[in-house]
């Protein structure tokens, strides 16, 4: 998910790039209404432990170190207490890692503290779970503290595909976990699935989707397998031990996903996310709308008061430093100028099927999107990758397949570096980073 997104040191200060923009755009930016400082926010809590490391995973996660769990829970509680910005909390997402790897008593301790501090305005509280570690006892603990949504990292319903991904669960665990969650009183369930697995056929992909649909799943996140730098999967590919899925098959799988899930009553509301009516993931919508959130735990990212910061991705150092001074755990921090922030907001919003609401964009960023991204819009429209109406700018179906290409073009309108990179755009293929990698 978004929390694993790489941060780069960028321009600090208020509006260093504004002077290079046309007058009309400059004055609009000057009248921008920033995110209200009293608006409700999201909370993200990162628990990095997993039973084993999956071959494709580039999240900050590591095999469980049991002796560190009590100290980690205490450190996260401390960070929450000291960094709580005293703003209403609308969504909570506890991810990782595998939160359900924690023993019941530690889970109870942590979720109890989160619930007390978050208050009573929370509309959605999600916990990620691995189908092999979501015992009835743990699901009861989740429910007791107010968790009302659980997200299972199912990935596939075929043992050999799970083996390729180095997952530890068995397909039977998926149905058992979903049923157990419902028995515990958590009726809003997400399932993560991966397509483009080496050796996977279209028929197999359709079968995995159908099995998830048959479970009555409320929400499905369907991501293409990514070969992230430094992962075991990438090494295996380099060594010729796995053969990546053919790009055109992968694109066909993506298109089949849209059609199969639409026919089953799921609304595609983001490139890779599909929901039954009323079941969109509110926590992820906070990221896609570029709204503010507090992230705690090792490697977690926060975006508060216009500043994005990232915590250290080292559980031992995190525990050792957080009690001394919560600022010592920050490894990266950036304050985007208004132009870059508008660019970032635009590419996040483009992920959503509703796209960029033009009026809303002016209100939140101060920029007229059609003017700011005029060059990209002309080019992408000519290629039938976006459509522009009086109300919105959104990806076409073809644009969904090439979203990374579109986003780069938009970023090039506000960033010199991206402008240079855009010269290479014609060489971008279907093997685009059209999603975030999926978690537990
Ligand atoms: S994919 Fe999920 S379960 Fe696997 S190592 Fe990464 S965080 Fe842990």
Structure notes:
The chain is of the alpha/beta class. It has two domains: 1-33 and 355-435, no CATH class; 41-288, Aldolase class I (TIM Barrel, Alpha-Beta Barrel), CATH 3.20.20. The chain is 40% helix and 18% strand. It contains 18 helices and 17 strands. It has helices at 23-30, 69-83, 104-118, 136-144, 159-164, 171-183, 202-214, 232-238, 247-263, 282-288, 315-322, 338-351, 358-365, 369-372, 374-382, 397-401, 403-412, 416-422, and strands spanning 41-47, 49-50, 62-63, 89-96, 124-129, 149-155, 188-195, 219-224, 267-270, 273-275, 293-296, 301-304, 307-311, 330-335, 356-357, 386-388, 392-395. Strands 9-10-8-7-6-5-4-1-11 form a nine-stranded mixed beta sheet, with helices on both faces. A hairpin with a 2-residue loop joins strand 12 (301-304) and strand 13. Helix 2 (69-83) crosses helix 11, helix 7 packs parallel to helix 9 (247-263) and helix 12 (338-351) packs antiparallel against helix 17 (403-412). The structure holds iron/sulfur cluster (SF4). Iron/sulfur cluster binds next to loops.
Which fold name corresponds to the CATH topology of the largest domain? TIM Barrel
Helix content: 25-40%
Instruction: Enumerate the spans where pLDDT stays under 50 for 5 or more consecutive residues.
Output: 1-33, 423-437
Q: Identify the CATH class of the largest domain.
A: Alpha Beta
- What would you say the CATH architecture of the largest domain is? Alpha-Beta Barrel
Dominant shape: globular
By DSSP (H or I, 4+ residues per run), the number of helices equals: 18
Major beta-sheet overview:
9 strands, mixed
Name every ligand kind in the structure. Answer: iron/sulfur cluster
Extended strand count: 17
């Amino acid at each position: 998910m978004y929390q694993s997104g790489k941060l780069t040191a960028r321009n600090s200060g208020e509006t260093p790039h504004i002077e290079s923009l046309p007058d009309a755009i400059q004055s609009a930016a000057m009248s921008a209404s920033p995110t209200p400082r009293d608006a409700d926010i999201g909370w993200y809590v990162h628990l990095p432990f997993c039973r084993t490391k999956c071959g494709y995973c580039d999240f900050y996660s590591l095999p469980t170190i049991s002796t560190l769990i009590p100290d980690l829970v205490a450190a996260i509680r401390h960070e929450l207490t000291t960094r709580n910005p005293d703003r209403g909390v609308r969504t909570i997402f506890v991810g990782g890692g595998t939160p359900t790897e924690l023993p019941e008593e530690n889970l109870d301790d942590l979720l109890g503290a989160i619930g007390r501090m978050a208050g009573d305005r929370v509309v959605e509280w999600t916990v990620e779970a691995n189908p092999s570690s979501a015992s009835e006892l743990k699901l009861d603990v989740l429910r007791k503290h107010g968790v009302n949504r659980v997200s299972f990292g199912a990935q596939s319903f075929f043992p050999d595909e799970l083996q390729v991904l180095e997952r530890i669960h068995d397909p039977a665990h998926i149905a058992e976990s979903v049923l157990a969650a419902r028995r515990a009183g958590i009726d809003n369930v997400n399932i993560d699935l991966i397509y483009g697995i080496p050796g996977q056929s279209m028929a197999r992909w359709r079968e995995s989707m159908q099995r998830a649909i048959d479970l009555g799943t409320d929400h499905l996140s369907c991501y293409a397998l990514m070969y992230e730098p430094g992962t075991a999967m990438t090494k295996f590919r380099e060594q010729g031990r796995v053969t990546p899925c053919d790009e055109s098959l992968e694109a066909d799988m993506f298109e089949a996903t849209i059609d199969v899930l639409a026919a089953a009553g799921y609304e595609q509301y983001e490139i890779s996310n599909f929901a039954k009516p009323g079941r969109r993931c509110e926590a992820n919508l906070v990221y896609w709308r570029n709204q503010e959130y507090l992230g705690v735990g090792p490697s977690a990212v926060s975006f508060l008061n216009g500043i994005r910061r990232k915590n250290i991705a080292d559980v031992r150092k995190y525990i050792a430093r957080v009690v001394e001074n919560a600022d010592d755990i920050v490894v990266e921090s950036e304050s985007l100028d208004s132009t870059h922030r508008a660019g970032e907001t635009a590419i996040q919003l483009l992920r959503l099927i509703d796209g960029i609401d033009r009026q809303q964009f002016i209100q939140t960023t101060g920029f007229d999107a059609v003017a700011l991204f005029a060059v990209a819009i002309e080019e992408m429209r000519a290629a039938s990758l976006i459509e522009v109406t009086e109300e919105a700018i959104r990806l076409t179906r073809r644009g969904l397949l090439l979203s990374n290409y579109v986003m780069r073009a938009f970023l090039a309108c506000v960033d010199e570096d991206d402008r240079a990179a855009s010269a290479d755009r014609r060489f971008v293929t279907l093997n685009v980073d059209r999603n975030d990698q999926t978690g537990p």
